[in-house]
Amino acid sequence: MEVERLVSAAEAILFAAGDPVETSRIAQTLTILEKEAEMLLEKLQERYDQTGSSLRVLKLGKSWQLGTREEYAPYIRTAMEKKRMTPLTNAAMEALTIIAYNQPASKGFVERVRGIDSSSVINALVDKGLLEEAGRIDVPGHPIGYQTTPLFLRAFGLSSLMDLPEPKKKDEEEFSGELEPFAEDMPTLPAEETPAGEPESEPLTEETEE
């Protein structure tokens, strides 16, 4: 199968999946090496750039997903008649920041850092798809650990967790050994990048009645 046909095959996989697809899965499906799969996806992005397509290829860690370019978000929003949204609460941003920098982290850890019960906040972030369970943590009680998801990376415009900004710390004499959960350490939410098949996604929001 020639290169251009493989590029189109990779495009079809991403389009049909809708959700992020791991490089290894694409490579296995096309019977090629992972490095070759990455090359195909880069060529797919070049194809979109050359044709002025509204689509783009999003790299999310070790996965890939189709999305739309930022400048088309207003048209998509109007077409879908989405309800008005409001930003996440400060409490949600605090919990999300703590887990992002310390994952996998338990609810108990988040509560010790914040000094307040955080079960409902974490459950809401899981429901929004920004956090997910990461198995049991090897500490007394073996609590469930939580980690960020590919949706979290896409929402904040990150390719991987390595792109997270350096967190602020307390002064040395006050530093407790835990990262300071400042929401402002997180990157600013970019304009919408919408996955194919889901024309408009605004994951860091909560619905309110119009």
How many domain regions?
2
How would you describe the oligomerization state of the chains in this entry? Answer: single chain
Indicate the structural class.
Answer: alpha+beta
Which regions are unreliable across 5 or more consecutive residues at pLDDT < 50? 171-194, 198-210
Number of strands: 7
Rg (C-alpha, Å)? 19 Å
For the report, how would you describe the main beta sheet?
Answer: 3 strands, antiparallel
Widest sheet: strand ordering:
1-3-2
Terminal Cα span: 52 Å
Full CATH superfamily name of the largest domain: Winged helix-like DNA-binding domain superfamily/Winged helix DNA-binding domain
Q: Find the CATH topology of the largest domain.
A: Arc Repressor Mutant, subunit A
% residues in beta strands: 5-15%
Overall average pLDDT: 79
Structure overview:
The protein has 210 residues and is an alpha+beta fold. It has two domains: 3-68, Winged helix-like DNA-binding domain superfamily/Winged helix DNA-binding domain (Arc Repressor Mutant, subunit A), CATH 1.10.10; 85-207, Orthogonal Bundle (Arc Repressor Mutant, subunit A). 40% of the residues lie in helices and 15% in strands. The protein contains eight helices and seven strands. It starts with a helix and ends with a strand. Mean pLDDT is 79; it is low at 171-194 and 198-210.
Task: Lay out the secondary structure.
Layout: H1 3-17, E1 21-22, H2 23-30, H3 34-51, E2 55-60, E3 63-68, H4 73-80, E4 85-87, H5 90-102, H6 107-114, H7 119-127, E5 131-136, E6 144-148, H8 150-155, E7 205-207
Antiparallel strand pairs: 1-3, 2-3, 4-7, 5-6
Helix pairs in contact: 1-3, 2-3, 5-7
